[in-house]
Amino acid sequence: MISLTQPTRLGRRDFFRVGGLGLGGLSLASLFPTAGRAGVPLSEAGKPVTDKAVVFLFLHGGPSQFETFDPKMTAPAEVRSATGEIPTKLPGITFGSTFPKLAARADRLCVVRSFVPGDANHDIKTIVGKDSHGANLGSAYASVAGGSTPDGMPTNLVLFPRAVDPAAGPEQGGFGKFVSHGPFAADAAPFQPDGNGSLKRDMKLNLPPDRLDDRRALLNGFDELKRGMEAEGAAMEASRQKAFSILLGGVGEAFDLAKEDVRTVEKYDTAKLYDVGKISKKWNNWKHYTDNANTLGKLLLLARRCVERGAGFVTVTTNFVWDMHADNNNAHMTEGMGYMAPPLDHAVSVFLDDLRDRGLEDKVLLVACGEMGRTPKINGKGGRDHWGNLGPLLLAGGGLPRGVVIGKSTANGGDAADEPVRIPNLIGTVMHTLFDTGKLRVTRGASREVMQLADYAPIRGLGG
Fold this sequence. Notes:
15 helices, globular, eight-stranded mixed beta sheet, two-stranded antiparallel ribbon, alpha/beta, Alkaline Phosphatase, subunit A, about 475 residues
């Protein structure tokens, strides 16, 4: 916590104590304009960004294409969806039976049935991987848009369960770093609201209101400190440089769900869908199932609050839960989908309805996918193993066509039968949503890596 002993002085030690709040990848752009910056500054008026945002819901562990959006019910029993199918609002199109709410909204969705992740490895390659230069896709966006809006809202965030529930388990970092900024400047790294503790707690800072209101004194203190540590400023971690930006910009309330209408919080709440106490503890991942149920809805609500206030890219994940081998760690397909599908079905449906009701449906693109899919054949224990040749991909909003199914899978659901969609195509769709790519190509200061991502061909049939 910070403690100020003089209204007009901010000591070096106090500054670093502020930096230790765990507030993630913000940057004091107005106070340290050169810290963490690289390359030629982009003109504020000429930034080639659109007025749209992307919420990327990463389904960690590799969800099955069969039990989600391509059930293959005419295939043999060991191939077809273990949970059956349900008709959707699109004639002739069915989803896995555990997605009734999304099935009722299929006319507002884009389902890709020919998405080829490329390998069967547990990693986070669809959001951070070789195709994105080892950076979270949001870092490419923030490298052009800037690390935060003028009032301090981060433009690039990653939301783990602890962002809405301090009792949730820590983020899964063993298969890749969601906060990686790759070749982009450190201030483009995703902001992680939970950090090492509760943002809500940290934002209070244990200071009397009159001290926080004395922004002139804080700024005077920063000016004194800046003169004394210019040599150190550039080397400071970008995740600590902007600890005061949220405070000074007044956007801290965006991260506090207590500021949201209680009726809206209730709509999003996925913890009420089933008794998490009945999740079998014989599976080593039972706590991940519990965290997913308790937090997924509120994470998407938090994402909506952030994009509504100017964030351009928000990564949401509830950790490693979609790995349904039916081994010691993970449940088999029917039991596992019973844990995983209701929160996803409910949370995404409420999120899409909320965007529509707020006039944001065409302004926010939702992307939902994992790192891979699942084998065409159910294994002897009732689970499905890793499969890199095909996986589920769902998109909605952002001005994309609605009620469309892109591509087809083979009869056994294991490969793309036509129009294979690969990770670069997904990245291209995201980049064309976030950027005016024509303007980007002639923008002075845009990095070579951003240009390469923007040059990826978007998914055919979705414009761009």
